[in-house]
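Continuing the batch. This is chain 6 of the set; chains 1 through 5 are on the previous pages. Same settings as before, nothing changed between runs. Recording input and output for traceability.
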Amino acid sequence: MRILLWHVHGAWTTAFVHGPHQYLIPVTPDRGPDGLGRARTYTWPASAVEVTREHAAGADVDVVVLQRPHELDRLAAEWLGGRRPGRDLPAVYLEHNAPQGRVAEMRHPAADRDDLVVVHVTHFNDLFWDCGTTRTRVVEHGIVDPGYRYGGELDGAAVVLNEAARRGRVTGTDLLGRFGAHVPLDLFGMGAERLAGIPGVRSAQDLPQDRLHTEMARRRLYLHPVRWTSLGLSLLEAMHLGMPVVGLATTEVVEAVPPDAGVLSTRVEVLAEAARELVADPERARVMGKAGRAAALARYGLRRFLDDWDRLLEEVRA
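Output for chain 6:
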């Protein structure tokens, strides 16, 4: 099967392109948001092929995976020589995000389409988005297993937040100082260096994926302070690495982290105490991390993810 999709979410796309198909990835000379091409900091198989607009216009495409409103509105048709996703080519709209705004106004841009399927990455998102009469499915995340790497020799917490300065309360950036007053925080992610001055943040850096995983696993625990997000893939990666989790009990996190794999709460003081206890008890942290890895492999393993997508793509294509 030949699948056209834009490189929008690096971690998610990395898992998706490990399937058995050929993946056509739009590329532009400037490698901007509408033409990133192949990933440079993730390992992708050769079956993920860059295509120019000229190539895509005449390409044999079996399914289009849309991920942003402007892809649905115009971009895909522009690249596909006028062929419209859903109407002229089989298509799904993959929704990565939890909806933003007032609950009564959380209407999806692909709502009321009888020629599309909206695919959510969590059941929480499916619950909150209003897709009208459009069919919806949930295909939960899958992770390319980085392997068990937990060392936990550094007595602090790893935190992975992308663009945390801009996203503010959404990512719990305002909570870092409160947690940092109890345990040292090592912050990773795009734009992390902008938060280096926050009290309690011991280090802040943006690293390539493999090095990031190694550095995360050196910390005693993984802290997830995010208030409102779909389900951070870095959280699932931390569990695969064998890290215990301390995090806000919000959105899909309560489904992803079982009780023996971490501590979840909506009370910052409870989480701060849990982090302190794990820093003080390396063996308990190790046991919790191993339970988390087992749970993550069972629910968010790559094989299950790819099998779920294969069934859905065959269904849409039929």
